[in-house]
Amino acid sequence: MTEQTPVQIVREQEKRRLFTSGSSFLKLGVLILFLLVPFLLPSYKTVDLAIKIVIFASLVASFDILLGYTGILSFGHGMFFGIGAYCVAFLLEKYGSPTYLNLILGLLLAAVVAVVLALIISFISLRVKAIFFAMVTLALAELAIVLANKLSHVTGGEDGISISMPGIFSVAFNMGEFMGIDITGRVITYYLILFTCLALFLMMLRFTHSPLGRVLQAIRDNEQRAVALGYKTFIFQTISITFGCLLATLIGGLYAMWVGYVNPESSLEVMAIMLNVLLMVVIGGMGTLYGGIVGAAFLLITQTFLPDLQHLAQNLLPGATLLHNMLERWLLLFGILFILVVIFFPKGVIGSVQDYVSRRKKIIPE
Hints:
Blueprint: H1 6-18, H2 22-40, H3 44-70, H4 77-94, H5 100-125, H6 130-150, H7 152-155, E1 161-162, E2 174-178, E3 181-184, H8 185-209, H9 211-221, H10 223-228, H11 233-259, E4 261-262, H12 264-267, H13 270-284, H14 291-305, H15 309-316, H16 321-328, H17 330-344, H18 349-363
């Protein structure tokens, strides 16, 4: 029997930890929680919040492949998210009818457009470096918003496009009760999006832990050294951009399926999409993938419930006018929470936790 190499030994240890570590049970618990949300908390607000956390966590993870694993800052990632949403809307409503075939064709069309556009952007924009690449992608994202608004006969302009889902995904569909919950088209769509995002997330994990992913991290840490080792960094960066943008496009299509509506502000707007994605990456931690879940949960939960604090305070403390005025400006509270997260978790929540665990392992060897 041949002796195992150091790499094989490390991989065997990782496989054993996969089923015994506390983090594995935590991940399983989070998955079970999302699976049970429609049954435990069946209100529309809660279910909508849960599935948007799943969608944006996947979107942040796809952006993290570019920023956290390859070191590429792109402000055009939200543009691909919007392209996916519009392609689904075109096939299901604007230029087609709500059928299963058109839904699949819409996602396929989005994937083709994403790959072609990502390759073009890569060949043009990777010629410049650092902040110049970010500015080029920002300009392209702004151009996409302008086109979506001006070509109103195609995109619906500011009014957007309302989407009707086919068959079992339709809002009107109802197949009866299960465990006291009506199994409607919304519930079925919820689980379709949940399992699709889970599959995409597993693909991203496999991508980042593959030899290709290791090369991307080497390029991020020291591109000149990677070139000296013989790697064609331009090709690897192009693969990273194309893969991340393709995933963002598919996730955008899933988002359109859930909200049933697409317009430039909700799907393409840089401030509405990219700013939130960047905040989620910073909060969760760059180069972690799992940080997207923490970042998306933090941002969406605060945006959903902080505005309600004013009404709660008015009911509980009707005479506290100063408190009411403070809670009315809930963005101030969000800013304070964000600053606290950055102070106490300088590498993001997941990144700081991983850094703490690695330091503890050095102090207390296994």
